[in-house]
Amino acid sequence: MSQTAVDARVDPVPGAEPAPAHRWWVLAVIGLAQLMVVLDATIVNIALPSAQKALAFSDSDRQWVVTAYSLAFGSLLLLGGRLADLVGRKIVFLTGVAGFALSSALAGAAGSFEVLVTGRALQGLFGALLAPAALSLLNTTFTEAKERAKAFGIFGAIAGAGGGIGLLLGGLLTEHLSWRWTLYVNLFFAVVAFAGGLLLLRRGKPAHRPKLDLPGTLLVSAGLFGLVYGFSNADTHHWSSPMTWGFLVAGGALLAVFTWWQTRAANPLLPLRVLLDRNRGASFLAVAISGAGMFGVFLFLTYYLQASLGYTPVRTGLAFLPMIGALMVTAQLSTNVLIPRLGPKPVVPLGMAMAAGGMVWLTGLGLGSAYAASVLPALIVTGLGLGLVMPPAMSLATAGISHEDAGVASAAVNTMQQIGGSIGTALLNTLAASAATDYLAGKRPSPQLVAQAQLHSYSTAYWWSAGFFVVGMLLTGVLYRRGRVVQDPDAPAAVHM
């Protein structure tokens, strides 16, 4: 990648089909499918108490409704991305959408805890097919620089705002219909996305179909499973338990072996050339760190609004809308104006710094804080910052990637976001719980004291989230190249499929 400040333009390779006239409708279909996957990570959270009451499962089992989804999703993403490259993105996308819909119907109709968890795991499996196929379709559909920036601005806003939308929609559906509708709602998304994909997406066949890297697939899937499972266990088993550190060590070792194997395999699952570009590597880190830090907002601020301020689920969801609006504004500004003119080096670190500032602002919340004076400004600052980080990072993580690697590169982006979110959830949950316990140590508990302890735990989580974003600011500030991003003339250009 050149460092010169020249206009970026990606020209299609000779003989490639021109971009379709209906490409913006393609974006709508892809964005809808992506929204379905992203919001499903949070939409069920608000419905969990109602589902637990209806199906009578224990508090210790409750985490599996969330963990089953993230385990399957996070550990199978790279496989899904490579299948999109090998089989064809349209067929993998449509399979993912249809399977996600059927899995949602199964989970929504569950009459037992076991069926609910099975449905959630299947959602994660088909989401692992759908998400990388959607992003790679976007990458290969929009090849002209200005249109690509606009498209990724919209797509990145959806990815960043999906969690907040899930909280709002989950509250509305749980409060006015039933917890089951937080799962059934996916059928409406899926029908539109499937019909649109069937009509609008080109079939396309891979030019060549190398054999699937089976050892690499097994190594990375098991390694990612170990990481996600280990971090998920941290909250219930603590860090000293073999169920936590044992799986983390095993996962890390398997991923190390996977990295070594990718240098030896004839047809590697994740060619290391995908990761070694500086801008791309910085973008992967930005996506992971943002995923970890965002849980400081969505998770603990949700508890604060409901437990401390007495908000209903619907009102809680509405409280996040200003942050989503701010994110969407800077998503378009960053991808269409700032990145083309300044490059990522000043923009993404600035976004990280703003998100860190928003987290620090939230540490000042009290039991009687007013939303408009204390919560709203922090949410807007955080949203503005995330809009400078997520869309540019997602675009740059797949920019200039070779046609045959588009699916697996897109899967790597989703994997980083998922792993970042899992790590963030586990770390922040554990640190917050420890802070609350330490606050109450040696004191006689009373309702007021318990409430203060909870508030202290939220503040601890916000401080750590701010720390994540500060680390992200430093890393992206060092790793991103100076100047505007240009397409390397020797690199294969993205083409439409």
Overall description:
The chain has 497 residues and is mainly α. It has one domain (23-212, 269-479): Growth Hormone, Chain: A. Helices cover 77% and strands 0% of the residues. The protein is built from 17 helices and no strands. Helix 13 (321-342) runs antiparallel to helix 14. The radius of gyration is 22 Å and the shape is globular.
Which terms would index this structure?
globular, disordered C terminus, Growth Hormone, Chain: A, mainly alpha, 17 helices, disordered N terminus, 497 residues
Helix/strand/pairing category: mainly alpha
Q: How many individual β-strands?
A: 0
Determine the CATH superfamily: MFS general substrate transporter like domains
Report the sheet-strand fraction. under 5%
The description of the largest β-sheet is: none
CATH topology call: Growth Hormone, Chain: A
Tell me roughly what share of residues is in helical segments: over 70%
Label the overall shape.
globular
Short description:
The protein has 497 residues and is mainly α. Helices cover 77% and strands 0% of the residues.
Write the layout of secondary structure elements.
Blueprint: H1 23-39, H2 43-55, H3 59-87, H4 89-108, H5 113-141, H6 145-176, H7 181-200, H8 214-237, H9 242-262, H10 273-276, H11 278-308, H12 313-319, H13 321-342, H14 344-362, H15 371-398, H16 406-440, H17 447-479
Helix pairs in contact: 1-5, 1-6, 1-7, 2-3, 2-6, 3-4, 3-5, 3-8, 3-16, 4-5, 4-7, 5-16, 6-12, 6-13, 6-15, 8-9, 8-16, 11-14, 11-15, 11-16, 11-17, 13-14, 13-15, 14-15, 14-17, 16-17
